Amino acid sequence: MTQKKAKLTLSPLGKTWLLDLDGTVVKHNGYKIDGHDTFLEGAREFLLGIPESDSIVFLTSRQDWCIPQTEEFLRAAGIRYDRIINNLPYGERIVVNDRKPSGLEVSVAVNLDRDQPFDLEYEIDGSLRSHSLPSSFFSSSSSLGWVTSHSWRSLRTSSLSFRNSMP
Ligand SMILES: [Mg+2]
To answer: Dmax of the chain from CA atoms?
Structure first.
């Protein structure tokens, strides 16, 4: 099974990554089946590439008893995160947020196929702004409308591509 690569265009603002664990980041129920977790291809590399200015929150239906071993697995893998929210229902996870006055959409959702490589790619488009922040918030280079691409494949080869997004 080959899933379609998810590609996002995001602003330079600090972001919150809400990530499911089982079947998305790690093998689905691997902690039960194998007795330990295993990263899906590209997931660890993607997580390591998330900027320090972003928050990482794991959302999971896992029960309390397996959270200490989950935390130890993530710690041993060098994964930074802000919190794990567990005991969640099995159904949809819905993010609701208010659109910026600039028109910037601030709710984003991605569906990845279970237990497939973490094929999510995103680019930072410096031209996507929020009117609610002073221009000094942005670096001078962002005024040129730069685009930076991120994916676990590009991070693996340390080759971030840049291009001018201005017409
Ligand atoms: Mg899942």
So the answer is: 54
